[in-house]
């Protein structure tokens, strides 16, 4: 059987030569900056050169898909990592922002064929956000970086 990319125990990841975009939402920026640091750590651990990482900031998670689409359509990146933090409040705003960010990101990766990672925290409390944006590999930005390298490698493999 021919396998493309991953094996059951996970793929061997090497991001050498990959170009990765990061779109980070400024809303809750103390958390999102920590996710961005996690993503940068993850990319660096997987041999993605700092100079191959393009970073753009947007006002909030709602705007992330548009910037991701511009990056993905530019032909300058192999994958994009969207980072944000949406914390549930007392109104329905959370559902619109989180839902539209997720929908926009999925639509964009399907429309462009460029992997777009959903590194947007959707949490009930600030503490839950802190727990997912620390200095270890359980940082969701780091997790998104690993996903970006895996998907970029896989798309290269599948597209030939
Ligand atoms: N944007 C976020 O990224 N996180 C949030 O928790 C949030 N809340 O709670 O309102 C949020 N709102 C801003 C939104 O993303 C847009 O920037 C804004 O609505 C303008 O379009």
Q: What are the SSEs and their pairings?
A:
Elements: E1 20-25, H1 29-45, E2 53-58, H2 64-73, E3 79-87, H3 93-112, E4 116-123, H4 126-131, H5 140-159
Parallel strand pairs: 1-2, 1-3, 3-4
Helix pairs in contact: 1-5, 2-3
The chain binds 5-nitro-6-ribityl-amino-2,4(1H,3H)-pyrimidinedione.
Residues 25, 27-28, 59-63, 84-87, 89, 93-94, 97 line the site of 5-nitro-6-ribityl-amino-2,4(1H,3H)-pyrimidinedione.
Bound compounds, each kind once, are: 5-nitro-6-ribityl-amino-2,4(1H,3H)-pyrimidinedione
CATH class division: Alpha Beta
Could you tell me the CATH topology label.
Rossmann fold
The value of Rg in angstroms is 15 Å
Strand-and-helix sequence, N→C?
EHEHEHEHH
Main sheet makeup: 4 strands, parallel
Terminal Cα span: 18 Å
CATH architecture: 3-Layer(aba) Sandwich
Strand content: 15-25%
The rough form would be described as globular
State the secondary-structure class.
alpha/beta
Q: State the helical fraction.
A: 40-55%
Ranges with pLDDT <50 over ≥5 residues?
none
User: Strand order of the main beta sheet, please?
Assistant: 2-1-3-4
CATH superfamily: Lumazine/riboflavin synthase
Mean pLDDT: 94
Count of the domains = 1
Distinct helical segment count:
5
Count of beta strands: 4
